[in-house]
TrEMBL record:
It comes from Bradyrhizobium centrolobii. Residues 45-155 form the Thiamine pyrophosphate enzyme TPP-binding domain. The keyword ATP-binding does not apply. The chain crosses the membrane at residues 46-65. Gene3D superfamilies: 3.40.50.970. InterPro entries: Sulfopyruvate_deCO2ase_bsu (IPR022494), THDP-binding (IPR029061), TPP_dependent_decarboxylase (IPR051818), TPP_enzyme_TPP-bd (IPR011766). One of its GO terms (molecular function) is carboxy-lyase activity. Keywords: Decarboxylase, Lyase, Membrane, Transmembrane, Transmembrane helix. This is Aldehyde dehydrogenase. One of its GO terms (biological process) is small molecule metabolic process.
């Protein structure tokens, strides 16, 4: 795909969360968490700080614990590459309410912009399919993003995996709270559980 056809990361995330209703959104370490915050802070946003590679597994745990709620993981290609083994566990467990979206700019944005493996041989959609996630797709248009945003709400048709090619623009960081206790207690409270 030519660089001119790459999607804007903030537009992608805004479209995914525009009509979120009861969606729980988990942001991977770094830029994807900032993108979720830029789309609007919400009590059902769960921001990862210091847990690179863990977003998909946090999503899996929440999806299994709350099977009637749509769970949406939004992460980056570097974070997904680090946690690629999680796709095998997700493929085995098959949580129907889990959707994973990878914002793939083909670089490690949090460590200096080095080229990631997705710029060459690594095919995350192929890996997800091989791990038992048949609804795995490469997304290159906003119409496809909007269709996925609607599909996220169907908690009987997952898991879903999407790799979205985005540009590597350096956008303003919109930082959410980094207070782990606050983040956990806020989401627990919104889901009807006591704080810890």
């Amino acid at each position: 795909m030519s660089k001119a056809n790459l999607l804007d990361r903030r537009q992608v995330v805004s479209a995914l969360l525009a009509n979120r209703k009861d969606v729980v959104a988990i942001g991977g370490l770094g830029a994807s968490t900032n993108d979720i915050t830029a789309a609007g802070d919400h009590a059902r946003n769960f921001y990862l700080w210091g847990g690179m590679g863990g977003a998909a597994m946090i999503g899996l745990g929440l999806a299994l614990a709350q099977p009637k709620l749509p769970v949406l993981v939004i992460t980056g290609d570097g974070e997904m590459l680090m946690g690629m083994g999680s796709l095998a566990t997700i493929g085995l467990q098959k949580p129907s309410n889990l959707s994973i979206v990878v914002l793939d700019n083909e670089c490690y944005g949090e460590t200096g912009g080095q080229t990631s493996h997705t710029s060459a041989a690594a095919d995350l959609v192929g890996v997800a399919r091989a791990c038992g996630i048949p609804d795995s797709r490469a997304i290159s248009t906003m119409a496809e993003v909007e269709a996925l945003a609607r599909a996220v709400h169907d908690v009987s048709a997952g898991p879903k995996f999407a790799n979205v090619k985005i540009d590597s623009a350096n956008v303003e960081r919109i930082l959410p709270s980094r207070d782990g206790t606050y983040i956990v207690n806020r989401i627990r409270g919104d889901l009807g559980f006591q704080p810890i």
